[in-house]
Amino acid sequence: MAQIAIMGYGTVGAGVYKTLTMNRDVIAKRAGEEIQVKRVLDLRDFPGDEAESKVTHDFADVLSDPEISVVVETMGGLKPAYTFTKQLLEAGKSVCTSNKELVAEHGVELRQTAREHSVNYLFEASCGGGIPIIRVLDTSLTAEEIEEVTGILNGTTNYILTSMADEGKEFDVALKEAQQKGYAELHPEADVEGWDACRKIAILSSLAYGKHIGWRFVPTEGITKVDKGDIEYAKALGCRIKLLATSRRDANGIWALVAPMMIGKENPLTAVDGVMNAIMVKGNAVGTTMYYGSGAGSLPTASAVSGDVIACVKGKDGSIRTEQSTENLALLPVDEVSRPFFVRMRGTEEYAREIFGTITHVVHLPDYKEEFGFLTEMMPEKDFKEKLDAAKGILSWYRRGKKEEEQEA
Ligand code: HSE
Question: Active-site positions?
Answer without folding.
Answer: 200
